[in-house]
Amino acid sequence: MRVTPVAPEEATGALHALYEGELAAKGYIPNYTRLFSLRPEVYRAWRQLVSALNGTMELRRYELATLAAAEALRCRYCVAAHGAILESKFFDRSQLEAIVRDFRTAGLDPLDVAIMAFAQKIALHAYEVTDADVDELRAHGLSDGEILDVALAASARSFFSKTLDAMGCEPDEALAGTANLLDLVERSKTQAKGR
Question: How many CB atoms lie within 10 A of CB 193?
């Protein structure tokens, strides 16, 4: 990490409680929590935002949109973390790897593909989003609120992924099984160029 977080043994008050909560829930203190130990109020606000998003968006859709945005931003930590959730709850490993390599050809239903494409576009080029992009999601049956949910998930991921990457926050050991997912994207691109 490019900054020095507050060590668990030095944490007091609300930060101590945050660290203890992470230990109780996960069995370890994630590196992103350690990073935000320097600004725990921002971390609390982040958790509230994620909770609000999850309150209106089904988990699978949130995770696919988040994975797409994290992959577009090349955030190893976020791809690993959200890939792990998708693998544990929705897809087997081969399906997950296919999605990460190219969600457009991974056998997802057209709505999932449209959601992921929209999330990627927002993460990379939000200024290029058009009425046609929104209309495509409507054509797949999403309401305006659901379309906004996807935009919010992708935009929120941009904040978190860019913060982690800028500060050199690496995936935790607990994510070792999915930490290499972003490498699949790079290998696929290299192979495609070689053809």
Answer: 7
Kindly list the distances between the CA atom of residue 149 and the CA atoms of 64, 74, 126, 160, 164, in Å, as whole numbers in the listed order.
12, 22, 15, 16, 22
Alpha-carbon distance 175 to 80, whole Å? Answer: 6
- Alpha-carbon gap, residue 195 to 181, rounded angstroms: 22
- pLDDT score for 11: 96
Q: How far apart are CA 80 and CA 45, in angstroms?
A: 22
pTM of the model: 0.91
Q: Which two tokens stand for residue 128?
A: 């290029």
Q: From the CB of residue 29, how many other CB atoms can be counted at a distance below 10 Å? A: 19
Measured between alpha carbons, how far is 124 from 141 in angstroms, rounded to an integer? 24
